[in-house]
């Protein structure tokens, strides 16, 4: 039995278990104290900043200029009324809208029947954007509607750049 008791004594743990908490090394303790002190100082500085009275601030109603976002300038056709009316005497230059089916889709997207007669057309640039100017008859006789549309005009996306109504002389 003495051998059994010797085995039990040799298996008995000596000291604290290996997974037990050990004291922090000296550097870690100093770092912990420094971090704690920094947190206390930050709380003190933040509290004093919040307690101080704020300086004079302008109060009162705001103007719409301060809260309104400016929109893009209104697109205007780069042609005068006489220049637009001159297109009635020329052969239409459809450019990218030379395909009749595509033109019909564009007109449908703009809210006009696909069978609408186009009186004149020309490629133009409106506010730096390429487009095609289409002239169609207006309901009151004697007027012409000028529509500047993007070259990719379709029934889904007309890309209307500008429009105006011109009275025939």
From TrEMBL:
Q: Which domain of life is it from?
A: Bacteria
Q: Which keywords does this chain's UniProt record carry?
A: Membrane, Transmembrane, Transmembrane helix
The regions listed as transmembrane in this protein's record are 30-53
Which residues lie within the region annotated Disordered? 1-23
Q: What is this protein called?
A: Anti-sigma-M factor RsmA
Q: Which organism is it from?
A: Mycolicibacter minnesotensis
């Amino acid at each position: 039995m003495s051998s059994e008791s010797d085995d039990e004594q040799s298996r008995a743990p000596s000291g604290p278990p290996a997974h037990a908490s050990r004291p922090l090394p000296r550097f870690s303790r100093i770092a912990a104290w420094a971090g704690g002190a920094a947190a206390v100082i930050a709380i003190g500085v933040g509290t004093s900043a919040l307690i101080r009275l704020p300086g004079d601030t302008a109060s009162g109603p705001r103007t719409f200029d301060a809260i309104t976002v400016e929109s893009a300038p209104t697109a205007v056709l780069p042609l005068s009324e006489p220049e637009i009316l001159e297109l009635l005497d020329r052969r239409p230059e459809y450019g990218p809208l030379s395909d009749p089916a595509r033109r019909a889709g564009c007109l449908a997207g703009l809210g006009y029947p696909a069978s609408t007669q186009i009186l004149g057309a020309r490629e133009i640039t409106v506010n730096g954007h390429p487009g095609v100017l289409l002239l169609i008859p207006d309901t009151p006789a004697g007027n012409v509607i000028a529509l500047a549309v993007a070259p990719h005009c379709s029934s889904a996306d007309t890309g209307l750049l500008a429009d105006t109504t011109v009275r025939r002389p």
